[in-house]
Amino acid sequence: MLKKWMLVLLTSFVFAMPVAAQMAFVEGVDYQLIEPAVPTSDPAKVVVTEIFWYGCPHCFRFEPFVEKWAESIPDGVVFEQVPSAINAAWTVHARAYYAFKMMGLQEQLHKKLFNAIHVQRQRLNSLDSIAEFVAEQGLDEKEFRKQYASFPVETLVRKGKQKELHYGLEGVPTVIVNGKYRTSGVMAGNFSRLLQIIDFLVANELKG
Length: 208
Description:
- The protein is of the alpha+beta class.
- It has one domain (45-70, 77-207): 3-Layer(aba) Sandwich (Glutaredoxin), CATH 3.40.30.10.
- It contains nine helices and five strands; from the N terminus they run αββαβαααααββαα.
- A five-stranded mixed sheet has the order 1-5-4-2-3, with helices on both faces.
């Protein structure tokens, strides 16, 4: 009876090893500590921030993963997406993202712009081309142009770029957990594992 019990215990341990190994995330390998930590948009909650660029094919492929993940985040956690403005080309899309937000159209146009660029292969890389895209959706092109060049959008882009520099951003998509940790698909190896790393870091932050 004792031998049988020991065999069951050993078998359980062997099968549990791969799961445990997956959860053994290591600082400097699976994620990086950000020092000093960057203030978040909501100090009362654990904020998970995805830095992305509409022109990035990896961001496009990550979108359904992170969208599904965001549907079941625990209480006390906030998810946000922030467009990278690390260079002039990417800033065009960052301004468009914030202009959509100012118009209350971000949710409506977010996927459509991703699909237009990566599925329909449209060259939406300038104010004029994106304004034309907005018009094609039956929306107010003039208002979009106004918001794109507005002071609030300029402020959001500038603040976002400053945070990126503090994050030590090296590419996209990059995920920042509570302003303290930076991880990415490159560090994780694949998007499913990236979400596991995010969950691990979020759980640690929720513990306080």
